[in-house]
TrEMBL record:
GO terms under biological process: L-methylmalonyl-CoA metabolic process
Presence of keyword Ligase: no
Alphabetized UniProt keyword annotations: Metal-binding
Transmembrane is among the record's keywords: no
Name of the protein in its database record: VOC domain-containing protein
Alphabetized GO MF terms: metal ion binding; methylmalonyl-CoA epimerase activity
Length: 138
């Protein structure tokens, strides 16, 4: 039996703002855009990884989520306390400058970490942390 990674889900409160960040600032491609029962899911991914996607979904989109659960998820998202995503990169500094130039909210400028990587971090328009990680020596 062989398994491989396919998708992860990231809550966003405004898909159009999220697309401006993930597609326009980060350079990911849109692979699917689906509306169902008043909600929207948008799958994005790196052109270099055609089999891996990030699905941008509404907070608390699960079928078992109550209205109170959805409100709680939206509040946690607004505080930046939900998910995050890390991307490998060959040039942390160049990616940092490109995303910052396109208006990305900087959380951490590029820095060499004691555990062998150089990384930086941004917050997406919904509050999720997005980190670029470059292994040293790459």
């Amino acid at each position: 039996m062989a398994i491989s990674f396919a998708q992860c889900f990231l809550a966003v409160d405004d898909h159009d703002k999220a697309l401006a960040f993930y597609r326009d600032a980060l350079g990911l491609e849109v692979r699917n855009d689906v509306e169902f029962e008043g909600m929207r899911w948008v799958a994005v991914g790196a052109p270099s990884q055609p089999d891996v996607e990030i699905v941008l979904e509404p907070p608390g989109a699960g079928p078992g989520a109550s209205p109170a659960d959805r409100r709680a998820m939206a509040e946690l998202l607004a505080k930046g306390l939900l998910h995050g995503v890390n991307f490998w990169t060959d040039d942390c500094d160049a990616d940092f400058e490109r995303v910052r130039a396109r208006g990305g909210e900087v959380l951490q400028e590029p820095v060499d970490q004691p555990y062998g990587v150089r990384d930086c971090a941004f917050r997406d328009p919904s509050g999720n942390m997005v980190r670029f990680v470059q292994p040293r020596g790459r």
